[in-house]
Amino acid sequence: MQKKSFTSYFLVFFILSLLIFGAAKTGFLSPLNAFLQSIFSPVQAVTYQTFAKITDFGANSQMQLLKAQNLASTQKLVDQNKLLADNKALRDQFQTVNPKSVNLIPADVVGAPGFIPGLSVPEVLILDRGTSDGVKLGDAVVYQNNLVGKITQVTAELSSVALVTDSSSQFTAKTLATQAQGVVKGQGGGEIILDNVVLSDNLKKNDLVLTAGAINLQNSGFPPDLTVGKIISISKNPSDLFQKANMQPLVNFNNLQKVFVVVNY
Fold first, then answer.
1. DSSP string over 182-222
2. pTM of the model
3. Which of 34, 139, 148, 240 is the most buried (most CB within 10 A)?
4. Rounded to the nearest 5°, which phi and psi values hold at 56?
5. DSSP at 256
6. Mean pLDDT across the chain
7. What is the pLDDT of residue 40?
8. What is the CATH number of domain 96-262?
9. Are 72 and 221 in contact (CB under 8 A)?
10. Phi, psi of 231 (to 5 degrees)
């Protein structure tokens, strides 16, 4: 008798299982499934959050303390390195005779739009100084006695510097050894030339090119005798009106972190 009852129960449960399986496959139970999920999802969320808190509570407190100490040490190392770099830049700049340190505003480079290391070179730098600091349009930007570029846009807190290599950059210059005069023109892509040099002037390879000076009545512009770069090659054709030279800046603009804005020259 017991064996017959067991067989009957087994057949009933087996048939029910097949019916439930078939209904699930055909999607017939989807509304019921959604209803059950709406009931049990909050319970599941609470259970997960509770378990996570229990896990965190049971974590090794010594390991957590070591992680916090490592983060603090890393930040301290970053701050110390930046302070050392800033102090060195300030010390080197203020030992430079031209321009005078009283006419300089130190500024951090906080951006370089369009610059992708290994793929492009910077043409514009963003500085953390603006009109509230005394910066104005046309001010020269230097690193030691080297010309970096000119302020072309300025807000209360930030300013934009077009580097000497930018295609918009153009100003008068002279060579150090031979005093040949010409116009420095940015070519973009990190290139720069000395153009419009008369054929009778003497250009020499490795000669330095300096600013001729272009200060306006608003005390902005390029002071004289700032180093722009050195001549690396010369193009001179007797049939042309002028000769020109390819130049190389002495400053690696990719690595600049701190520069100085020349004000009230």
1. EEEEEEETTEEEEEEEETTS---TT-EEEE--EE-TTS-EE
2. 0.66
3. 139
4. -65, -40
5. -
6. 80
7. 47
8. 2.40.10.340
9. no
10. -75, 130
Please tell me the distance from the alpha carbon of residue 36 to that of residue 116, in angstroms, as a whole number: 53
- Identify residue 255 by its one-letter amino acid code: N
Tokens 């040099």 belong to residue: 197
Note whether 223 and 265 are within 8 A (CB).
Answer: yes
Query: Of 192, 189, 186, 181, whose CA–CA distance to 170 is shortest?
Result: 186
Q: Residue ranges of the domains in the chain?
A: 96-262
Beta-bridge mates of residue 169: none
In sequence order, the β-bridge partners of residue 161 are 125, 151
Structure tokens at 87: 């102090």
User: CA end-to-end span of the chain, whole Å?
Assistant: 114
Q: Which two tokens stand for residue 109?
A: 């480079």
* Cα→Cα distances 36→26, 32, 49, 109, 121, Å: 18, 6, 20, 58, 59
Tokens in use for 89?
A: 């830049």
pLDDT in tens, 86-137: 666 666 666 675 676 668 999 999 999 999 988 999 999 999 999 999 999 9
Please count the CA atoms within 13 angstroms of the CA of 72 that sit on its side-chain side.
6
For the record, the structure tokens of 258 come out as 């701190």
Helices (H) and strands (E) in the chain, counts: 3, 14
SS3 95: coil
Is pLDDT at 177 greater than 80 in this prediction? yes
